[in-house]
Task: structure prediction
Amino acid sequence: MTILRAIVVDDEEPARELLRGLLASTDVEVVAEASDGQEALAAIQRLRPDLVFLDIQMPGTNGIEVAHVLAERHELPAVVFVTAYDQYAVRAFEVSAFDYLLKPFDAERLASAVTRVRERRQQPEAAVIGALNRLLASPRPPTTEPVVVKTDGRHVFLGASEIEWIEAVGKEVRVHLGATALTVRESMNSIEGRLDPAHFVRVHRSAIVNRLHVREMQPWFKGDWVLILKRGTRIVTGRTYRTAVQRLIEGPPGR
Result:
């Protein structure tokens, strides 16, 4: 059986290591790894892999945006999306061109995904690209579930509109709710993954904003921006998050 050449893309090293280990017992050879979307695009263009395991929730250019760029370039390999949050799996991954892995997954589920990739590689390239474009054009159902955070030993249920922005301070995260803020012992990546990407955009390594609370954007140095929230809070964006910041103007893909 032909060996599939694969690239593993995830911003967390333990996740890449786990996937590497599970793939070691399959007919898939990992030829490269990437920790963010831009690095992934460069590696895919350079190595032309058969398969990409692509994390969805990453800082800067996320997995969906990476796939969109590849489709526009007509450089789309077989893609298996990887996500810890099933909100991304609803409808979007029912198309026949690729698969998704919902974390945590086991060796059996991974083997099934590889088998499905082999089957789908028999489809014409145009069919694969067309399926992805239909995915990206499909409206996503709104997220109505509350965001649950743990603070001071209690669980607080928050509506999306209540959260103005989220800030990383050292090892803690502060969820700003108007004049008050909740301190949460959780990583930014973890809390970001539970937020609706239609409303929340990560604009800096230490800042996520709710686009419903952004009043204006003012240009800053070297292509960055200052975001001014409705209550007057000013947030400077980060260079590696420019693609995500652009979504504040254009809206999320498929909207």
About this structure: Confidence is low (pLDDT under 50) at residues 89-97. The chain has two domains: 4-137, 147-250.
